[in-house]
Amino acid sequence: MAKTALTPAAKAPAQSPARRRVLGSASRLTLLIWGLAILAVASIVLFLSWDLLGNISFALRLRGTRVGAMILCAVAVAVSTLAFQTVTANRILTPSIMGMDALYTLLQTVMVFAFGAVAWTTAPDTARFGVELVLMVGFSLLLYRAMFTGRAGSLHLLLLVGIVLGTLFRGMAGLMQKLMDPSEFTMLQDLFFASFNRVDPPLLGLGAVVVAACVVVIWRMRHTLDVMALGRDTAVGLGVDHRRVVTTVLVVCSLLVATSTALVGPVTFFGLLVVSLAYRMAAGADHGQLIVVASLLGVLTLVAGQFVVEQFAGNSTTLSVVVEFVGGIVFLILLLRGALK
Amino acid sequence: MIELNAVTKTYGETTVVDSVTTTIPAGGLTSIIGPNGAGKSTLLGLISRLLPMDGGSVSVGGLDVAGTPSKTLARTLSILRQENQVSLRLRVRDLVTFGRFPHTGGRPTSEDRVHVEAALAHLDLTELADRYLDELSGGQRQRAFIAMVLAQDTDYILLDEPLNNLDMKHSVEMMRLMRGLADEAGKTVVVVLHDINFASSYSDTILAMRQGALTAQGSPDQIMRTEVLSQIYDLEIPIHEVAGKRIGVYFS
Questions:
Q1: How many angstroms separate the CA of residue B106 from the nearest CA in chain A?
Q2: How many structural domains is chain A composed of?
Q3: Dmax over Cα atoms in chain A, in whole Å?
Q4: A chain contacts of residue B149, beta-carbon cutoff 8 Å
C-alpha cells in the first residue's frame, strides 16, 4: 500500500518543474526577442529624431544613410560570426580575428596599386565592388577552406594563424601604400576612411542587396547549422555534407565581411561581442532564434552606442574605439576562462 | 551486409588499419574487439564515412560509402562515436529529435515525434526528456546520444564503445537493447566493445583486431578460446563456461 501511494507522489514533482521550465524558457526567448526589437527600434528613432534642427529633410537623409550602414554592418557581422563559429566548432574565432577584414583592405590596396587610383576610384561602384567581392570570395576559399574542412585542428594553432595572416595582410597593404604616389594614396585613403561617422552612400544600396542575400542563405541553413553544432562527426552521421556547408558559410562570411568593411571600416571584436552576448542571453535557443537575437543586439549596440557617443560624449571618442575596447575585454575573458580548450 | 575490401588508413608513416577485407553479415549483432590502438574505432569511422579511406572500399547495404551522398547514407546507416560534445544548450528531447534530421530536415512531423518518444522510452529517458544535456550524468548523456541514433531508424547501426560511462545495470540494458534491435527490428548492429565477456554473451559474430589487421572472425564459440585470445591480447585468458556462455577470466 505504502509503495503504490508513493509512486504518483514521487513522480509529480519530478515532472512539473521540468514542464514549467520549458514553458518558461520558450516565453522568455520570445520576450527577449520582442524586448530587443523594441529597444533597437527606439534607438533608431531616437538617433534619427534627436535634436533635429535646420533643413530637416537633409539632416534626415544624412542620418538615415548612417543608420542604414550601421544596421547593415550589425546584421552582417552578427550573422557571419555566428555561422562561422558554428561551422568551425568554437566560440572564440571570428572572421575578423582570422584576418578576413584585413584581407579585404589588402585587396583594395592591390587594386589601386595595379590599376591606378584614378581608374579604380572613378570606376562605377557596382563594378568596383563586384570585382572586390569576387576576389574576396576566391582568396578566402583559397586561404581558409582547407583549414576548416579537414579534421578539427588545434584552436591555438588556428588563432595563431589568424593573427599572423591579419598582421601579414595589414603589413603588405601598408607597404604598398608607402610605395604609392602620394596623390594616389590620398584617393585610396578616401576608400579606407569609412567609419561609423562617415559612410559611403552609393555603396549602401549595393551592400543592402548583398547582406540581404547572404542572410537569406544562412536563414535557410539554420536547421543544418543546429546539426553542425553537434560536432563534425555527429553532423556527418546525420547526413550533413560537412565540406559543402563549411564552404558555403565561408563564402557567405567573406561577402558579409567585405560589405561591412567597405561600409564602415574594420571592426575586429564587434562580432565576438554580440555573439557571446547572444549565447549568454538566449541559452537554449536554436540558430533561427540566435540569428535574430544576435542581429538585434548588434543593431542596438551600434545605434545606441553611436547616439551616446555623439550626443552625450560630444564626439570626444568614436564608437569603434568603444566597441573594440569592450569586445577586446570579452575576448580576453573568453581566453582566460579556457574557451580555447 | 557490410563489405570491406582492402580497407586501409594511414596517418603519416603509421598504418592504423591495414588492408582489412571481410564481410559483416546483414542482421544480427557483430562486435569488434581488440587491444587499445588496434584500429577498432578507426575501422568503424571508415565504414561510416566519418574518416576518409587511404585505400580500398566499403559498401553498406549495397551503397558505396565513398560515392553515395551523405544524406542517402544517413537513412541507411547511423553512427555514434565515443566523444560527443555539443556547443548548443540542448534538451534531451531536442537532441533525440535531431535523429530525424536525415528524414525530414529541420521540421519534424507527427510521425517523427512518435519515433522520438519511442526512442526516449526505449532508453528509459522519458522522465529526463525536458532536462538540459549539461545537467545530466555521463551515463545519462550517453543514453541520450544512443536514443538519437535509434530515432534515426536506420537498417545499420554502428556504435563505438556504447558501454562507456555506463554502470553494470545500464550496460546490460544497453546490450539487451541492441540484441532486441537485431532480433526484433531486424537491424544490423556493429559495436566496438572492450569487455570480451559482453561480446561473448551477446554477439552473433566477433571480429578481433590487432595492430590494424583483422586477426580473427567468427562466432563467440570460435573466438572465445584461450589460444585465440592470447594472439590478440598477449595475455593468457582461461575460458570458463558459465550459464551456457563462454566467459574469460582475465583478472589475475
A1: 5
A2: 1
A3: 96
A4: 237
Q: How far is A288 from chain B (nearest CA, A)?
A: 11
Nearest to A283 among B89, B98, B127 (CB): B89
CATH number at residue A178: 1.10.3470.10
List, for residues B21-56, the tens digit of each pLDDT value: 999 999 999 999 999 989 999 999 999 999 999 999
pTM of the model as a whole: 0.87
C-alpha cell at B85: 560534445
| Closest CA relative to residue A295, chosen from A92, A39, A24 | A39
Whole domain around residue A271: which residue ranges?
Answer: 62-340
Q: Do A15 and B127 touch (CB under 8 A)?
A: yes
Choose the mutation target among A82, A86, A151, A236 for the interface with B, i.e. most B CBs under 10 Å. Answer: A236
Chain B residue whose CA is closest to A151: B51
Q: Which residues in chain B touch residue A21, judged by CB atoms under 8 angstroms apart? A: 130
**DSSP reduced 3-state for B12:** coil
Tens digit of each residue's pLDDT, chain A (341 residues): 333 333 333 333 444 444 445 556 678 889 999 999 999 999 999 999 988 888 888 888 888 988 999 999 999 999 999 999 999 888 888 999 999 999 998 998 898 888 887 787 778 888 888 999 999 999 999 988 888 887 666 788 888 889 899 999 999 998 988 888 888 787 777 766 666 667 667 788 999 999 999 999 999 999 999 999 998 899 999 999 999 999 999 999 999 999 999 888 888 889 999 999 999 898 878 899 999 999 999 999 999 998 988 888 777 777 888 888 888 898 888 888 866 55
Q: Where residue B52 sits, what CATH number does that domain have?
A: 3.40.50.300
- Could you tell me if residue B47 is inside a domain? yes
Question: Do A133 and A210 meet the contact criterion of CB atoms below 8 Å apart?
Answer: yes
Q: How high is the ipTM of this complex?
A: 0.90
Distance CA B114, CA B137 (A): 26
| Domains in chain B, number | 1
Question: Looking at residue A6, what is its pLDDT?
Answer: 37
Is B91 in Cβ contact with A284 (below 8 Å)? yes
In a domain, A53, yes or no: no
**Is there a contact between B50 and A243 (Cβ–Cβ < 8 Å)?**
no
Residue of B48, B51, B130 to mutate, interface with A, max A Cβ within 10 Å:
B130
Cβ atoms within 10 A of the Cβ of B245, count?
Answer: 13
Q: Suggest the residue from A233, A279, A280 to mutate for an interface test with chain B (most B CBs closer than 10 A).
A: A233
Distance between CA atoms of residues A252 and A138, nearest Å: 12
pLDDT attached to residue A152: 63
